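Predict the 3D structure for this chain.
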Amino acid sequence: MSLDIQAAYSNRAAEYVQALGSTASAHPADVQLITSWAAHVNGLIVDAGCGPGHWSAYLTEAGHPVRGVDQVPEFISHARHAYPGVTFELGSINQLPLEEGSVGGILAWYSLIHHDPRTVRATLEEFARVLKPGGALLTGFFIGTAVEPFDHTVVTAYRWPPEALANELCSAGFDVVETHTRTGREPKPRPHGAILAELAPA
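Done. Predicted structure below.
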């Protein structure tokens, strides 16, 4: 996340928390997908780009060891106050404060949508660095017919064809396991996607 994107989220953090800072605002299919994915993760789950911390709290309550990381100070402050039993850390998902091969799973739920497509692979390679062999990654994103920018509510984001993002994952050392798609709810229906991947054996 660039400093400009960080500033954009900092300026609208309170509004974001109110609108999206709860699993109650999530689509039921997303809740089911994240729940089932996490059940098969062996070890620490990192919520990369955790935002207000609601997914970290949800997974912690489900019994998983979780660590939330986000670059926006306002999000981390809110998360620590709202979910005192969960570990949160201020940091960039491009340079995770974690040792190599120390993580069982990474949830990157819409936290890659603002990454320039030319640089997203470096972040995926950082995910690969901290994951154990066979470690699991689940990423959520907006679907498009081409890799293209659009006017996101906070700051410019990118749509990805699932196969294009899958290719980036494979180039970063992952094996794609499943791809899911759905169409969002009104009043702004948007095609959404999720990819489950595993770190390929060395």
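The mean pLDDT is 88.
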